[in-house]
Amino acid sequence: ILASIAYLVTLFSGFWTVVPRMKEFAAQLGAPDALGWVTSTSLFALLWALVSGPLFLVAFCTVAVFAWDKLSKGVETAVNGTAPGGKLSFGQLIGDISLRVGFAVMAGVTIVVLGFLGLGYVGAVIAGWMMLYDLTAATYARRGLTALGQAGRVHKCRGWVGFWLSGAVVSLVPGINVLLLPVFVTGATLMVVESERMAADQTQSSVE
Length: 208
Description:
Elements: H1 2-28, H2 33-61, H3 64-67, H4 69-80, H5 90-116, H6 120-134, H7 137-141, H8 147-154, H9 160-170, H10 176-179, H11 181-207
């Protein structure tokens, strides 16, 4: 809900901020008011189409540590028979949320600017990167790791590059990107669990 509100606020504030200025520019070029309004609105709609998917995912994935914990824990339990029961302390949780929200705001602004520059695909790469971190957040939180702690772990996971790029591609497809989020959460959880299992097996083999 919060992500949806943030998305809609960005949409409408962007529309009422950008379109009138584009219309004024069209008027300076001698375009009639009606034509200027239609052209400005159409251009905004086109540009928004480039940034809306990645922007929504950035906002939505920020709350993933809460929204997807039940699903992530269920997946891990199904695979391992159990799942760690650890939780972040209150201080860790506040710090983790603050860091994720701060980064999400910066990423969101960057995605919007890139979209209006015709570089929406770069915004998608940013969205995919955030999906990598935020959709593995619940799994790592059960291990007592915050976003900072993830950095030393998630890039050691087998398949993290594929997960990142897949998220980038999917982020460009409005509607489908949201519907596939449970699939990505499942994949993120399995990626972490399988990587830990492989690391444990390698350690056991070294001992033997």
